[in-house]
Design a protein that fits this description.
The protein has 228 residues and is mainly α. The chain has 2 domains: 151 residues, Orthogonal Bundle (Cytochrome Bc1 Complex, Chain D, domain 2); 38 residues. 56% of the residues lie in helices and 6% in strands. The strands form 2 sheets. A two-stranded antiparallel sheet has the order 1-2. The protein has a two-stranded antiparallel sheet with strand order 3-4. Helix 6 packs antiparallel against helix 7. The longest helix has 33 residues. About 3% of the residues have low confidence. It binds heme C. The site of heme C has 24 residues, from helix 6. Heme C binds next to helix 6.
Length: 228
C-alpha cells in the first residue's frame, strides 16, 4: 500500500523531471511585433536566408499584408510571378553538395521548434569563433549552416546590437510566416464577441417582451386564487 502511494507520487512528478533535464538555453529577449520590424525581418529573410532556404508556404503576394507596397514586392520578386512561393535561389542539390544537407524550409520553423522565435534568435546569435579560428554554434554544435549574420565577428557593442536587432526581426518575421492569418483571426474574434454581446442584449429584451405578455397581471391572479 505504502509502496504504491510512493510510486503514484513518483509518477506525478515525472513530468517535472523533463523540465529539470532541459535547462532553458534560449535567449530571453523580446521578439518585436511592430510592422516596421516585421518588414525589416522579411527583407533579411528574402535577401539573406532565401539564399539557401525556401519559405514554400509563403507567396510574394502574402508580403503585401505586411505593409509592403506593390512596387517593393515587385523589386523583391524580380521575374517571379506575384503568386509564386518564396523558393530559394540555390537548388537543393547545390546546397546538398555545398553543406552536406538540404537547408530546411523556414515557413513553419517558428512552430516546428519549441519556443520557435526564441530558438531562431538564439541560433543566429550563438555562432562564435573557437581558439583555432573555426566557427561553431553554441545552441547547435557542428551545424552545417554558415554564420550568416556574422555573429562570430560581432565583437564590439554596436555590432552586437545590430546583430541582435537583425536576428530578432528575422525571428519575428518567421513567427508571422508560420501563421500569417493570426492577426485577422484575432480581429475577427473581437467582431464575433461584439456580435454575441449585442445578440444577448436583443434576446434579453425579446424575452422580457414575451414574458410580459405571458405572465397574468398580479390582481387577476389574486382573484383567480380566491375563486378556487
Ligand atoms: C549559406 C546557406 C544558408 C543561409 C544563407 C542560411 N541558412 Fe539556415 N541553414 C543552412 C543549412 C545548410 C542548414 C542545415 C543545418 C544542419 O542541419 O546542420 C540550416 C538550418 C537552419 C535552421 C534549422 C536549425 C535546426 O534546428 O534544425 C534554421 C532555423 C535556419 N537555418 C535559419 C536561418 C535563417 C533565419 C537564415 C537567414 C538569416 C538562414 N538560416 C540562412 C544554410 C543556410
Amino acid at each position: 500500500m505504502r509502496l504504491s502511494r510512493y510510486s503514484l507520487l513518483f509518477m506525478l512528478m515525472l513530468p517535472c523531471l523533463d523540465a529539470w533535464a532541459e535547462p532553458a538555453k534560449l535567449a530571453d529577449v523580446i521578439i518585436p511585433d511592430a510592422p516596421d520590424a516585421l518588414k525589416r525581418g522579411a527583407q533579411t529573410a528574402v535577401g539573406t536566408c532565401m539564399g539557401c532556404h525556401d519559405l514554400k508556404y509563403i507567396t510574394y503576394h502574402d508580403l503585401l499584408a505586411l505593409g509592403f507596397t506593390k512596387q517593393e514586392v515587385d523589386e523583391m520578386r524580380a521575374e517571379h510571378p506575384l503568386g509564386a512561393a518564396l523558393i530559394s535561389q540555390t537548388p537543393p542539390e547545390a546546397s546538398l553538395a555545398a553543406y552536406g544537407k538540404i537547408p530546411p524550409d523556414l515557413s513553419l520553423m517558428a512552430k516546428a521548434r519549441d519556443d520557435g522565435p526564441h530558438y531562431i534568435y538564439t541560433l543566429l546569435t550563438s555562432f562564435y569563433q573557437d581558439s583555432t579560428g573555426n566557427t561553431d554554434n553554441r545552441l547547435f554544435p557542428s551545424i552545417k549552416m554558415p554564420d550568416i549574420l556574422g555573429a562570430g565577428a560581432a565583437n564590439d557593442p554596436a555590432a552586437r546590437h545590430e546583430l541582435q536587432t537583425n536576428a530578432a526581426e528575422v525571428a519575428a518575421f518567421l513567427n508571422w510566416a508560420a501563421d500569417p492569418h493570426a492577426n485577422e483571426r484575432r480581429h475577427l474574434g473581437y467582431y464575433v464577441i461584439g456580435y454575441l454581446i449585442v445578440l444577448t442584449g436583443l434576446l434579453y429584451l425579446l424575452k422580457r417582451r414575451i414574458w410580459r405578455r405571458l405572465a397574468p397581471p398580479p390582481t387577476k391572479l389574486a382573484s383567480s386564487k380566491a375563486d378556487l
